[in-house]
Amino acid sequence: MKFRKHIFGLVVIAFMAMGFNAANACTGCQIKTGDNAAINGRTVEFGVLIDTSIAVVPGGYKFTGSTTLGPGKKWTSKYASAGMIIADNEVIVDGMNEKGLVCANFYFPGFAKYSVTTKANQSISMSSTDIVQWILSMFSTVDEVKKALENNEVAISPVLTPGFPPQVQPFHFIVYDKTGKSIVFEPIDGKLKVYDNPIGVITNSPTFDWHMTNLRNYITLGATTPNPKKVFGVTLKPLGQGAGMLGLPGDFTPPSRFVRAAAFAGSTIPAKTAEEGVMQMFHILNSFDIPVGAARTVEKGKIFSDYTMLTVVRDTKNLRYYYKTYDDQNIKMLDMKKFDLNAKKIVKLHTLTKQRYEDISSKLK
Length: 365
Known about the structure:
16% of the residues lie in helices and 32% in strands.
């Protein structure tokens, strides 16, 4: 693909006038099923509508990364991939490739610091959205990705991202493969720091290692209802099921969502099949659904509310990519096996649809 011009989608003109920096409250996690499928998913939140489409990018497709100095790293896709693209920018920002490798970006405000693009590193540099597509295009396992990142085969340039507000967007990233293995990598002081992610959970700021340390504050939580205890000769019984999770943080901050995602994903009774696991993952992610108005900021008298635009689930065993939206809770599914993965062009479908309510009145007997 020829070097792309930065064309910004129709994302709220008010951003340009106000310089507003939207919050973002995405949550990701993973479970394993009885048939050894790794099922992972995430929510997508933002303060304004982001224009998204689902797309299939074939193998053999040519890419050129964007940098602050112009064209950057060039590559030809080794593997086909499917997932979400933003506006008309033909790179996937959340997706899965034909080998079951998953990569996605998550907001990382206050901590992301990309490298400075120079003539020396321009040939390995690309944008914060390009890097997701590069990983999906070129690698089949987490170990391969980790090696490439640690060998400094790529650098992230602080360019504006088409389809987002006109500011450099701060991201960190998660990678899963079909075995369930996972890493997180973060742009810290211009370098990509890689963390092993044994629990498969990610949210937003602060850094991943901080979140893992914070989990130690919640080691008393559990899925099992505690037994009655005697205090001063009085037997005290739990008030109901769920008492084992008493103290679980319920707010929408990244640390609280990280703890909840770890607690829910870590306490599930494994589903028997991948298909059942997909529904189980949607139920877990429903716990992170943000209705309009529950998490908001006010800028110059105007309200911007984070809300759950998309919920995505990926079946890495059967290569199926599922999603639903805020306005349409019917679950859609893309099956990669039904596409020509060596086609010549990208195919896509806009995600914004409106749900129709089923009237079952006439069915009552």
